[in-house]
Amino acid sequence: MNDTTADTPKLSWWKRLSGGLKRTSSSLGTAVADLVTKRKLDRAMLDDIEDVLLRADLGTEVAVRIAEAVGNGRYDKAISADEVKRVVAAEVEKVLAPVAKPLEIDATKKPFVILVVGVNGSGKTTTIGKLASKFSAEKRRVMLAAGDTFRAAAIEQLKVWGERNRVPVIAAAQGSDSASLAFNALTAAKEQGIDVLLIDTAGRLQNKSELMNELEKVVRVIRKVDESAPHAVLLVLDATVGQNALSQVEAFHRTAGVTGLVMTKLDGTARGGILVALAEKFKLPVHFIGVGEGIDDLAPFTARDFARAIAGIE
Q1: CB within 10 Å: which end of the chain, N or C, has fewer?
Q2: Which contacts (CB < 8 Å, 24+ apart) does range 34-38 have?
C-alpha cells in the first residue's frame, strides 16, 4: 500500500471529526473571537472566556484552568483568537490524553464478552453493529446478543446488523428475560468458538431502579457461565444530552462497573465539551467517538485530534 492510500482515511476522518464538531467549535471560536477583538486581556475578559467554555459543557474545573492558562503572562496585552484556541486545544488535550485508550480484546478470553449499556436513543444498537463490522474486518469471529428484549425494534435492528456483517445473532421474542438470553448467548458463543460476543441491553433510564436491578442480574448470570465476564462494559452516551451524561455515567458505573465510554452524536451538538467534563470527573477510558450514522463514523478516540477539532484549529 503506498503512502497516499494510507493517508486518505486519516484525512477523511479528520474532515468528518472537525465537521462533526463544527457546532461546538464554532460556538466556542466565534464567542472567543468576539471577546478578544479590540480589547486588552483583563480579569473581565477571562471571566467571559470562562463562561463561553462552561456553555460548551467543558465543566467548571477545566473552564477555570483554561482561563488561567489564557491569562498567564498576557495581562494588559492584546491577544488573538488563534492564541486562545491554541491554549484551549493544549489544555483540553492534557485532560483527554490519559483517557484516550483503545479497546483491547484479550484473545485468551474466548469469547471476549462486551456488555453494551446506555439509555434508549443513545445509539447503543448502532454502535454494536459498527463494532461488529470493525471486529469482523480484523478477522475475529463475532456474535451478537439482542438483550434489549423490551423493544421489538432493537431486536430487529440487531438482526439487520447481523445480516449485514454476516455474524450470528442470538435473539428471543419481545418481553423475554434478558438475563436468560445473555446466558444462552454466552453458552452458544463458547460452544461455537466465538472470539467476541457483543451483548445489547435495554435502554434503562438511570432513575428506574428495577431496570438497574435487571442489569445487575444480567451481569450475575453471565458470571455463572464465565466468572471473568463481562470483560468490558461499554457505556454508550449521546453527546446531545450535555450535563445529563454525568448522572448517566454515575448510575451505570455503580450498577454494571463501566470499563469504558463510547460517545455518539457529537455532530448533533454545540456542547461537545461534555466529553472533557466526563474525562475530568470520572477518568474512565474513552474508546470510540461517533460523528455520524455511517459505518466509518465511529472511530477510535484520539486526544489531540479531538482537542484541536473542539478548539476549531484547522
Answers
A1: N
A2: 36/78, 36/79, 36/80, 36/81, 36/84, 37/81
